Amino acid sequence: MKPFYSFFFAFIFLFLIIRPNAATSKYEMQQFLSTQNKARAALRLAPLVWDTKLARYAQWYANLRRGDCALEHSNGPYGENIFWGSGDGWTPAQAAAAWVAERRVYNYWSNSCVYGQACGHYTQIVWKETRRIGCARVVCDYDGGVFMTCNYDPPGNYYGEKPY
């Protein structure tokens, strides 16, 4: 009987670690998608579609960052945007809006950002070949801030290529 209980408790533990949390509720999923798909629609690009595999990956990585909430990329197989905000009130809509706001510093003709500014979050969102997205949000253990991440497939931001 002991092997069964060990397996059962291991399964429950893994389920609790990788289970979707509030970040993947329908409401927050729509918050992640809405702003990003509006940016794509403005360029007549196909909308991103929520992908549970990407959402699980994002949740796995967000759970790893929960302890320190460092703005470090996972270096995984997907495109990735990350966000950190002080305090626990940050929403997925605000993270997505911050990424989309980088549009102001992106120059399509030179395919570059204004000097000293970042625009790679925006270009990942509007990467023409990207079709799927999955995101997650966690409250940081050490400071009560919020860490959010979205993963994109196929990934974008290839050096020397324009996003659309």
From TrEMBL:
Transmembrane segments: none annotated. It comes from the Eukaryota. It comes from Buddleja alternifolia. Belongs to the CRISP family. This is SCP domain-containing protein. Residues 1-23 form the signal peptide. Probably involved in the defense reaction of plants against pathogens. Coiled coil: none annotated. CDD domains: CAP_PR-1 (cd05381). Pfam families: CAP. Residues 27-160 form the SCP domain. GO terms for biological process: defense response to other organism. Keywords: Disulfide bond, Pathogenesis-related protein, Plant defense, Signal. InterPro entries: Allrgn_V5/Tpx1_CS (IPR018244), CAP_dom (IPR014044), CAP_sf (IPR035940), CRISP-related (IPR001283), V5_allergen-like (IPR002413).
